[in-house]
Specification:
Shape: globular
Number of helices: 5
Strand content: 25-35%
Structural class: alpha+beta
Distance between the termini: 14 Å
Order of helices and strands: EHEEHEEEHEEEHHE
CATH class of the largest domain: Alpha Beta
């Protein structure tokens, strides 16, 4: 059986997150509506992960099993014709049914941008924050997260999963003249986890929490420990790594 894979990029500003929900606009809903128009049948899609309301993606991976075979279909062009400009299909590929966008993923990478100056063009892609921050203290907190930890203290109570342990492969802040940029790579992420980590590290940068207190919050494994959630617009899913590279094609599917 053919399984189609999409590399999708989107601006999440006006969407209630990735996951399908009743009575609101979602990324999944828009993509499934477009696919149904192409195939004249319902199509269920599966993503590498679910982004929250207002969160963006440069590299969201989605797969679906087509309900029928359509000859001479340029799937990328057909979808981009039907979708709004803030959702774009960048690449397409074909694999067999052993590939799964979520379960075959080995690593996910997120980026969060804090802007230290006013910005008009990037206002929906950064957290505008004008207080001075202790960069070294925030970097110390980021290093605490490396390795495997239980992130109960830094995820939403809505995170319905079997366990809340994640392995973090990279966690680091970078700095330029006008921005603080946080990068985090891990095998999996929980609902609101990255935003909770960023928001709490910013509290450390403001001097309201010490790095030791941040480490204690992680060890407490308790959502009521005091984590602060950063706003969504600064967060983007920037890459998903699989054991074998996806064979993107320029051919008509």
């Amino acid at each position: 059986m053919k399984r189609y894979i999409l590399h999708v990029e989107y601006d999440g500003t006006r969407y209630a997150g990735y996951q399908l929900q009743p009575d609101v606009i979602t990324i999944q809903g828009e993509l499934e509506t477009a696919l149904e128009a192409i195939y004249h049948a319902p199509v269920r899609i599966h993503a590498s992960g679910r982004t929250d309301t207002g969160v963006h993606a440069h590299y969201q991976i989605i797969h679906f099993d087509p309900p029928c075979e359509l000859k001479n279909l340029n799937l990328k062009a057909a979808l981009n014709t039907l979708l709004t400009g803030d959702i774009r299909v960048i690449n397409t590929a074909i694999q067999d049914e052993t590939f799964h966008a979520r379960y075959s993923a080995r690593e996910r990478r997120y980026r969060y941008i804090v802007s230290t100056r006013e910005t008009a063009l990037d206002r929906f892609r950064v957290w505008r924050f004008f207080h001075s921050l202790d960069f070294l203290a925030m970097q110390e907190c980021a290093s605490i997260l490396l390795g495997e930890h239980d992130f109960t203290s830094f995820c939403s109570a809505q995170a319905e999963v079997n366990h809340k342990r994640c392995t973090i492969l990279r966690s680091a802040w970078e700095q330029d003249e006008t921005r603080l940029i946080y990068y985090i790579n891990g095998n999996r992420f929980l609902h609101s986890m990255v935003r909770s980590l960023v928001g709490t590290m910013v509290e450390v940068g403001k001097g309201r929490i010490t790095p030791d207190e941040f480490a204690s919050m992680l060890e407490l494994r308790d959502r009521s420990a005091g984590a602060v959630t950063a706003p969504p617009q600064g967060l983007s899913l920037i890459y998903v790594r699989y054991e074998h590279p996806i064979p993107w094609t320029k051919e008509i599917l």
